[in-house]
Specification:
Blueprint: H1 27-51, H2 55-76, H3 78-81, H4 98-107, H5 129-142, H6 160-170, H7 172-175, E1 182-183, E2 189-190, H8 198-207, H9 222-237, H10 251-277
Antiparallel strand pairs: 1-2
Helix pairs in contact: 2-5, 4-5, 4-8, 6-9, 8-9
Length: about 280
C-alpha cells in the first residue's frame, strides 16, 4: 500500500526549503560593512597620526600667546574693562570685539587711555609688537570677532579711482575728501588719515572705533577696503598739483586765505601808493 502523505522528492529531510544556488548569506552584508568601517577608521587614524606632530606645536604657541595676553590684560586693562573683559560702568565689554579692535586700539596708543574724555587720544604705543599680538590673541579667544587683515589687502595695489569713489561716499563727510580729518560734535573729531598704516586703516573700517560706523564685508568688500587704502596712500604720496594745499581743508579755508591775505595785500598796496603820491 502507498503512504497517505508521500514526501516530495525535492524536499530535504530537514523540512526547510532548499536555498537557491548563488544566493548570498544574510550575514555577508554585515561583514562587508564591518570591514569597510574598519578600513575607513584605520585610514583616518593613520592620517591623523602623520599630521599630529605639527598640530600640537601650533596649538601650544597659540596657547602661550593667549596666556601671556591674559596676564598683560589683567595687569593693564582689567581695571576698566573687568577681570574677564566683561566691561564696567566706565569701559565697554571686549567679548566679541576680535583681534582687529585690540590691535588698532593698543597698536595706535589709544589704549590704555591716559584720561577719560570724549574719545581716546592717539599717543605713543606702550607695548611691544609681541605684547600687542598677545593681547589680541587673548581677547579673540574669548569670542569670535573681526581678525587682523591679510597682507594682500594692505599692499596698496588696488584701484585708486574706485577707492576714491568709495571714500567720497562713505568717509569724506567726516574725514574730509583728502583724509585731512574734521571736527565732530561734543568735542569729538575724525582724525587725519595721513601717516596711518594700512593695517590700522583696515582695522578701523571693520571695527568702528570711537564714533566711526562699522563697515563690514556686506557694506564694503575686502577688495573695496583695499581700494580705499590705495587711494589714501596715493594722495599721501603725491603732492597737491595746485601748490600749497592749506591743510586740505577745502574751499572755505582757501577763500578765507584769499580774503585775508589777498585783499589785505591790495589794501596795503593802495595805502603805499597813496602815501607815495603825497
Amino acid at each position: 500500500m502507498r503512504p497517505k502523505n508521500p514526501r516530495p522528492a525535492t524536499q530535504p529531510r530537514t523540512g526547510k526549503p532548499a536555498r537557491k544556488a548563488g544566493r548570498r548569506h544574510p550575514l555577508a552584508t554585515i561583514a562587508l560593512l564591518a570591514i569597510g568601517l574598519g578600513l575607513t577608521g584605520g585610514a583616518y587614524a593613520a592620517f591623523t597620526t602623520t599630521t599630529a606632530s605639527a598640530e600640537p606645536q601650533v596649538a601650544a604657541a597659540s596657547q602661550n600667546s593667549v596666556d601671556e595676553g591674559k596676564k598683560l590684560f589683567q595687569a593693564n586693562c582689567a581695571t576698566c574693562h573687568g577681570l574677564d573683559a566683561q566691561g564696567s560702568s566706565v569701559a565697554p565689554s571686549l567679548i566679541g570685539v576680535g583681534a582687529a579692535a585690540v590691535d588698532f586700539q593698543v597698536g595706535t596708543g589709544r589704549m590704555p587711555m591716559q584720561m577719560q574724555g570724549p574719545q581716546a587720544q592717539e599717543k605713543p604705543v606702550q607695548f611691544t609688537d609681541e605684547q600687542v599680538k598677545a593681547l589680541a590673541d587673548y581677547v579673540s579667544s574669548l569670542a569670535p570677532g573681526p581678525s587682523i587683515p591679510e597682507q594682500k589687502f594692505l599692499d596698496g595695489k588696488g584701484d585708486a579711482a574706485h577707492g576714491a569713489e568709495l571714500f567720497r561716499i562713505n568717509c569724506a563727510m567726516c574725514h574730509n575728501v583728502a583724509g585731512a580729518g574734521g571736527a565732530l560734535t561734543e568735542g569729538k573729531y575724525a582724525p587725519p588719515l595721513t601717516g596711518v598704516t594700512a593695517k590700522h586703516i583696515y582695522e578701523a573700517m571693520v571695527t568702528g572705533p570711537q564714533n566711526m560706523p562699522v563697515f563690514n564685508d556686506l557694506n564694503i568688500t575686502p577688495q573695496g577696503k583695499a581700494d580705499i587704502i590705495t587711494y589714501l596712500k596715493y594722495i599721501q604720496n603725491n603732492p597737491s598739483p595746485g601748490g600749497f594745499e592749506l591743510g586740505n581743508l577745502g574751499p572755505v579755508a582757501e577763500g578765507l586765505f584769499l580774503w585775508i591775505f589777498g585783499l589785505g595785500a591790495i589794501v596795503a598796496l593802495t595805502v603805499w601808493i597813496t602815501a607815495k603820491s603825497n
